[in-house]
């Protein structure tokens, strides 16, 4: 607010001084110039009448000679007053219009409105720094799950694009540099409802500065940061950044897991996908044979490291070995867009190809050339821009890697479903047959769509019926929560994935396991089952029916009628 007042006073100072001075001179002139009353006697106008006359004549609202007709001298003075004050009014109005159109003033107003909207937030929210492809995907994922977000981005076009997005929740956005602590504080870094800061800009150093500022200003706040630099990642770890995401290393790790345990990879894609969308088909990469890696930048090096760990035979194709420092053996210099380079890499006997350069046109060209030479290739394509999604779908790649979507999915799961992230982490240490068995159970549970995954805490705000008293505490089991409130002998199409009790974690817990206050449970179900389960969690009458089998009257009138019927039955007996 101080900056807005300062801008107004600085730009409007001269017009205001000129207006005040012109009014003062005009009023003083009317007071000093002698006039005549209705009888022709000398009369001097008072300050009130003089101000009144100048007010309506200088603004051209009207004109009238009050309280008595003016003399010629007074009329001459009023005429000069009109021309002088009207010119000054035009100058003041033009200055005001220029001020309203000034970019600095508009930015100050926008910042003031932004601060006010952030301060009025009453729901928990995340502060997202950077609204590029990754930030946009994350904000959409959060708002689709009715989570709030606040955005800072340096590009005004991105902020304008955010205002045009059809999001489920309103997202306040600020055009500014997120490296400045003042902008972070304006966006709600010190707000009691702020749950964490997510740094998703395209510059590693910027993300580093955001993380440092956030940790210094609010050490207890969760900070999630994107980086693809080992040096920056080490720096982030040094001062306690909570979660660091490298899209290239994350994808390469998933590819290695897909080779070693295909069922686990398919399970992950089913659980983190968008509810209601078709189930993705299994795309198992070949576990043996020659793999060709086109492009040995950050993505190519991560793929080489993880695939080499699987014992695969690898050949690297890169155009500039001096910049990328390729491996000593199995290297071919070239772009990979031409047939001779791929033939030198033995494309005819390769089982898989990774088109991993940082240019989409080059990657598409590599895939099309390779397909002509070997139609049986398993193709992994790196997509750098979302606008090219249709092209990559048409080129026939089995796996498409987009850095922004990988980070957005990972952070979205981490922030909205931390138990699912923990479940997926624990699943990596299970036998591959374990994941295949769980997939079979899910196939019997689902139709053809991605399941709904959610977590609940046995607490008063999420399960009031279960926490209302100790009457049914001993009978509270997972099987009870999964019983159908409409018919207790039926079970809802729900699979409990993880139960946490204190420090104990139970993967795929048994339905006979007791549920206590403070426990947290992760569920997976066909869409719609969650709302049915909510009856049990929130309605004590439903819980009583599931435990005892008695459908007791719920309302006061029905309870009195039931007692009367029981009394009559006892009397008749």
Number of domains: 4
Helix percentage range: 40-55%
Give me the side-by-side strand order of the main sheet: 5-4-3-6-7-8
Q: What CATH architecture of the largest domain would you give?
A: 3-Layer(aba) Sandwich
Description:
With 573 residues, the protein is an alpha/beta fold. It folds into four domains: 2-101, Helix Hairpins (Orthogonal Bundle), CATH 1.10.287; 121-245, NAD(P)-binding Rossmann-like Domain (Rossmann fold, 3-Layer(aba) Sandwich), CATH 3.40.50.720; 250-418, Rossmann fold (3-Layer(aba) Sandwich); 451-573, Regulator of K+ conductance, C-terminal domain (Alpha-Beta Plaits). The chain has 24 helices and 20 strands. The chain has a six-stranded parallel β-sheet, with helices on both faces. The chain starts with a helix and ends with a helix. 34% of the residues are buried.
Summed up:
The chain is an alpha/beta fold.
Annotation keywords:
573 residues; six-stranded parallel beta sheet; Rossmann fold; single chain; flat; 4 domains; Helix Hairpins; 24 helices; 50% helix; alpha/beta
